[in-house]
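Deliverable D5.2: sample structural annotation.
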Amino acid sequence: MQTFYFQEDGTYPNKLPVLYHPNAIHDTDTMQEVFRATNWKNSWVNGIFPYHHYHSTADEVLGVLSGYAAVQLGGPAGEQLQLARGDVLVLPAGTAHKRLQQTDDFEVIGAYPNGMSFNTKTDKQGEYEQALQDIHHVPLPQQDPVTGNSIWR
């Protein structure tokens, strides 16, 4: 597992570190079950938006089901990663993320601790201050969605 820290920049909160589990789940057919077993629910399957965005009401796990993508984490000055099948990102509430490039078959599954509801924030005027208040009320997840260990404590 790798850990990435990003600075709060007045547009993207980036409060807690991102956890990156490369090649974490070899059998991607079971990825949803792995996440559910650690209480990450309310899942969906799709891609990653091609613009910087974040969620202020929930943490998010993204697991790559197929294909490859270049993503940027932490906003425009953040880190670029190459994601592939089996990779998992754990994004704390407020962490900016964006898809830069992808293969035609790129697909991720997303889920949230305790099945929490999520919103989508960008860089719109007035969102940042409200997002900071929202993030303050997001409870820390009990378990890492891959290992089941405690995280961010």
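Annotation notes: The mean pLDDT is 95. The longest strand covers residues 40-46.
The annotation will be released with the project's public dataset once the embargo ends.
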